[in-house]
Design goal:
The structure is a homodimer of 448-residue chains. Chain A contains 13 helices and 25 strands. Chain A is an alpha/beta fold and 448 residues long. Chain A folds into two domains: 190 residues, FAD/NAD(P)-binding domain (3-Layer(bba) Sandwich); 153 residues, FAD/NAD(P)-binding domain, CATH 3.50.50. In chain A, the strands form eight sheets. Chain A has a six-stranded mixed beta sheet with strand order 5-2-1-9-21-20, covered by helices on one side. In chain A, strands 13-12-11-17 form a four-stranded parallel beta sheet. In chain A, strand 14 and strand 15 form a beta hairpin. The first copy, chain A, is globular and about 70 Å long. In chain A, 55% of the residues are buried. At the A-B interface, strand 4, strand 5, helix 6 and helix 13 of A face strand 4, strand 5, helix 6 and helix 13 of B.
Amino acid sequence: MVTSLEKKPSHEVVIIGGGFGGLYAAKALANTNVNVTLIDKRNFHLFQPLLYQVATGTLSPADISAPLRSVFSKSKNTKVLLGEVGNIDPKARKVMLGDEIVPYDTLIVATGANHSYFGKDSWKELAPGLKTVEDAIEMRRRIFMAFEAAEKESDPEKRRAFMTFVIVGGGPTGVELAGAIAELAYQTLKEDFRNIDTQEAKIVLLQGGDRILPHIAPELSKAATESLKKLGVIVHTKTRVTNVENDSVTFKRDNELTEITSKTILWAAGVEGSSMGRILAERTGVECDKSGRVMVEPDLTVKGYPNIFVIGDLANFSHQTGKPLPGVAPVAKQQGEYVGKLIQLRLKNHTLPEFSYNDVGSLAMIGQNLAVVDLGFLKLTGFLAWVFWLIIHIYFLIEFDTKIVVVIQWAWNYITRNRRSRLITGKEAFLGPQAVNHHSPFQATETK
Amino acid sequence: MVTSLEKKPSHEVVIIGGGFGGLYAAKALANTNVNVTLIDKRNFHLFQPLLYQVATGTLSPADISAPLRSVFSKSKNTKVLLGEVGNIDPKARKVMLGDEIVPYDTLIVATGANHSYFGKDSWKELAPGLKTVEDAIEMRRRIFMAFEAAEKESDPEKRRAFMTFVIVGGGPTGVELAGAIAELAYQTLKEDFRNIDTQEAKIVLLQGGDRILPHIAPELSKAATESLKKLGVIVHTKTRVTNVENDSVTFKRDNELTEITSKTILWAAGVEGSSMGRILAERTGVECDKSGRVMVEPDLTVKGYPNIFVIGDLANFSHQTGKPLPGVAPVAKQQGEYVGKLIQLRLKNHTLPEFSYNDVGSLAMIGQNLAVVDLGFLKLTGFLAWVFWLIIHIYFLIEFDTKIVVVIQWAWNYITRNRRSRLITGKEAFLGPQAVNHHSPFQATETK
């Protein structure tokens, strides 16, 4: 199969998904002698690690987005196609995009993952997650609208419900959200209201495992917990959410059930492979894990299909450590680069050793002067970690979009705790806080 | 009525609307001995003159917005209320906000104006206007989605419809939109597509009167027309739109009907006072002009109600020149400042001479190095006018937000023709361009 590739006049590579995996695969193949078609539902790549800053009013969506067409405008072998892939035909080597059929020689599937609600799909509307720009705008609307509603509410109990924020999931996103909301309530907004004292807001972080940020060293988890507590966040570990209602969340801890009344429940838990995983399994017989991620071969291909690669959050790559690599940007990026390189080498009848993740370390931002950094050989907390986090993200943003001014603005906003991007927009934004008295005021809507 | 004011222990000023008029009235009254309640449907003030740059992908909504609460966080006599006023009771001096009743001693109505579709309400969905952030996001979606749809379309006629943009209205907004879309098609996007040549896009500006930008000197109108033509925009004056369909617009010119097939029709014509004008007319008997604007007294009050002011786009102030002052930001700003000052003087039993607009001049941006500036004593075109326009807007943005970095970013984006804020977002964004083959693909939706 590999040897047949070089005989073709032009080798068609189709990449599904313009996240970190797909983007870096396409970059690795830009201006080479293959034809690349990059398919995405959206016209932009999203720098997801900073999405929580959109949700909490620090950045605008465009600040962390790069139009895919402009990324590849100078790469004439790369075609960007806007659309949603409905099916794949691995035998005929075709991808179905609505009525359109896109043939491929090599396929790279990089469609990522969604939040998992552990089978409780009704929770999704009540406790939205944070994967897309629209999710972030909706989360931002809920957070800021909750303060507005509290300001108008005279009943102290209802007011408390508006002033209580519950974040489910103690991974990086959950921790960063909790820290950012705490800073918002206790610092940014403290002078802004006349009837409420935003310092009375309650921010609760629920984590299933025995510590937050389980992917970093235990002592850093502990430091992160301390930092969150310092900011005013209540952290509950070993906690299993058993129910989510319109204005409450119930969790089990030490065999005890607790119900918190809250109008703003945010979801940052669980991982579920996107639907392309299921389609691939049906069409190729490849195995998926219980989260719907595709079990890939050591070279990131699908078993029996050396011309189909699965990378990023959708891939379960367990060959290196015996457990799946984490669903983080550096993994997706390195896998994309690996596959891009491998495709080129194969055309020259060469190959690469199996994929191996070069762990660059983990880090999480908790708040101003508060972060944790785990580089393995070096562990940082507090101010030093915070500076390190800033530098790393400035570096990534520059690499991502050489517009230095955007980076300066971002760093400036961040350092000055400016949260001017706190627009309440969308259909329900017009209704004012009286809207929150409706039956299901904070239900997920199509408003963006 | 006036003399009774000073006897009250605290004087309640209610301002409806946080646009330029309401904002500057509230600023004039900040930290004085009156109580101010500023009511707006939105939690932010919008710098509307730059909204067209959001619609065409240069700026993000937050770049031209200021959270009202943060503007007044240090002004403890000012309360911001999020909500929509449903009615006014001028006899009882009360404003109805949902179930809530807000009493006032002095009322300032600054709710602005909407686009007028000259009674053809069905056109509104087919040819959206540009007044809100949501409008701008929707317009941006339509513009960028049209190029995406053209890229996928194989039928040359249909493709042409996607590549044709019609802007109705030759005032500043229409001119600025036409210029920005021309720059987008002919410069920014020219390397981005593989199947279409964006240079083949057709941008048509339709103006009812005999020249565009009728509020500035005729020689500048002419210069602006030349600049637009240089950019590639087709300008039709003395043109009356007679019909708008899903994918066509028909107009009459020299008694001849012409139909243009276009998937993207944008509305920048007509002015219609917001609904508060009608409510005021019903409740106070005040006269409105045929555009629904309130005929105000020389001191901007409503006849018979010296404690009710109407300012900004909703006011028809014709005492100075015999015709209404234009609906532009400087008029609203000066009126807001005037009213703020007058209220304070009245409390000391003083008053002010009647309002008089200090015309600071008019300017319009057409494109890179192309603008027109009319200061009366000085008329500029081309590069000099463009630099002047930039400086003036930088000045206003600094005054507006003091976040110098935002201004640098904006100027940088503008000068480098960066249009990274070109996200297609909202419900329909997910569907990809195949969505445009639906029955009414570009209908206005709630997607933001």
